[in-house]
Design a protein that fits this description.
12 strands; single chain; 335 residues
């Protein structure tokens, strides 16, 4: 299939080209993020390959369909960026990469917890400047701490396991019970209890209308003073302005974000020579107890290889009229 690949970075092109080496697809790479204004670039392409921050709203999909596109291959697990009802109305197939490396994201989340607690990032900068003082770098033992895991699927489970091995008490909240989570030592509790009892809260749930701004002024008020919050899932799970206020009051003692609600305007780009035009992001970056990374939790060679392989297989299966199990449909269509 002739496929327009948007939001392409050099590593995307390298891994996708390698995965496609023995397949007949014609991949054309675009650095631009897909949006309603540039969707016309895909005219004549049977398929479009998109990433997390591409805009697959109704306007974009209408333009793609008019240009002859029949298939959307998402090279990510999330699909909240896609207007699925419009895609179904237009007859556009949508498939994703449901699992590329849950280990990569879980390991990154645990790494963020360790870095924020023991302040590795601050210590590194101090020592490089000849400052060997450790005042201000005080952490706490994870052993005996309570960690709340919101979303106990593959990534949540893999985040819980090493923390349980360190001696943490693990609480979990998820509408769907995962027996492996309890087998690993986790205990399911209502969300209210998890918020109230956890020293650390790590988010691993999908973004849905119910989970939008799950972390907000109301839920923050129910947490322990000094709580650490980690988000490696979706930016809009967190109401960032509310968290800024909680950081200022001390309610939040540490914050790790690998995702940000308005990240599409900033992440994956070198903006070091520019002024950031997002006041909330700028404010977050001023706090010494905040660690922000650019949606890189997935970024391992294993994950990129798996993403590329599954994306090419999704193209193969769609072209052959075969189901793959990676199809994405609206809730209405699923019912």
């Amino acid at each position: 299939m002739k496929t327009a690949v948007f939001s392409t970075k050099p590593y995307d092109e390298r891994f996708l080209t390698a995965a496609n080496a023995s397949h007949p697809h014609e991949l054309v790479f675009f650095e631009d993020r897909l949006n309603p204004k540039n969707a016309r670039l895909a005219a004549g392409f049977e398929a479009v390959c998109a990433f997390v921050n591409d805009d697959l709203s109704a306007a974009t999909l209408e333009t793609l369909a008019k240009g002859g596109t029949r298939f959307i291959a998402l090279r990510c697990a999330g699909f909240n960026q896609v207007d699925l009802k419009t895609a179904e109305r237009l007859g556009l197939g949508v498939r994703r990469v449901p699992a590329y490396s849950p280990y990569a994201v879980a390991e990154f989340a645990v790494g963020m917890i360790l870095a924020l607690n023991r302040k590795y990032h601050r210590a590194f900068n101090r020592v490089r400047e000849g400052n060997f003082a450790i005042d201000g770098l005080l952490g706490f033992d994870l052993h005996g701490s309570t960690v709340g895991i919101v979303g106990t699927g593959k990534i949540g489970l893999l985040t819980a396991k090493p923390l349980a091995a360190m001696g943490c008490r693990i609480l979990g909240y998820d509408p769907y019970v995962n027996p492996q989570f309890t087998a690993a030592g986790g205990t399911y509790v209502p969300l209210e209890q998890l918020l109230a009892e956890s020293n650390i809260i790590s988010l691993h749930c999908p973004l849905t209308p119910d989970s939008h701004h799950l972390i907000n002024a109301g839920t923050l008020a129910r947490m322990k003073t000094g709580v650490m919050i980690i988000n490696t899932s979706r930016g809009a799970l967190v109401d960032a302005p509310a968290v800024v206020e909680a950081l200022k009051s001390g309610r939040v003692g540490a914050l790790g974000l690998d995702v940000y609600e308005q990240e599409a305007d900033f992440f994956y780009e070198d903006l070091s020579g520019e002024i950031l035009k997002d006041d909330v992001l700028q404010r977050l970056l001023t706090f010494p107890n905040v660690l922000i990374t650019s949606h890189q939790a997935f970024f391992t060679d294993t994950a990129l290889r798996n993403i590329a392989d599954t994306t090419i297989q999704n193209l193969n299966d769609f072209a052959a009229g075969q189901p793959s199990g990676n199809e994405v449909r609206s809730e209405k269509a699923r019912g």
